[in-house]
Amino acid sequence: MTEQEKMLAGELYFPSDKLLTARRKDCRKQLDILNSTCQTEHKKRTQLLKTLFAKTGKRLYIESTFKCDYGENIVVGENFYANFNCVILDAAKVTIGDNCMLAPQVGIYTATHPIDPVQRATGIEFAKSITLGDNCWVGGMAVINPGVTLGDNVVVASGAVVTKSFGDNVIIGGNPARVIRAC
After folding, report:
1. CATH number, residue 90
2. Catalytic site residue from 59, 113, 128, 178
3. Is the dihedral of CA 83, 29, 146, 93 positive or negative?
4. Residue 163: helix, strand or coil by DSSP?
5. SS3 for 168-180, per residue?
6. pTM for the model
7. Would residue 113 show up in a list of annotated catalytic residues for this protein?
8. How many domains does the chain have?
9. CA nearest 142: which of 182, 101, 181?
10. N or C: which end of the chain has fewer CB within 10 A?
11. Domain region containing 118
């Protein structure tokens, strides 16, 4: 398997691989264009995002600055909005449903590293997919960790650190995030 195939399969891989490094470089170039495009140029920004991501709904908007690793592993549904300084590390697939909103400085991180310090020191890592259902709202400075799935109609409180999956119709918050109440 190639390092990219290992990465997408959730297996240990070397991110320093030449192909992966080149893909990240290409993504950075696209992000530089996106992030330097005036916020009032909605059509141009939307087209840039549709080129960057694997799949999008018709309507989406992301404020600058936006950062991701590859872009090609991100799928967003209809009416997606991300506020300033969003970071999506998409070494694995990130799927975000319809009508989802991300507040400022939200981090969605699929990449992770081995716990064993000797193994970690080799530079090897792995990634786990993340899924957000429809109608999710993620509050400012919240972090969604590798392997998390959130159901439909989930609200994530500001500053939450989401380390496990949650079902539909809940408000979650804290570190680690827990159910605050149903919604």
Report:
1. 2.160.10.10
2. 113
3. positive
4. coil
5. CCEEEECCCCEEE
6. 0.96
7. yes
8. 1
9. 101
10. N
11. 3-182
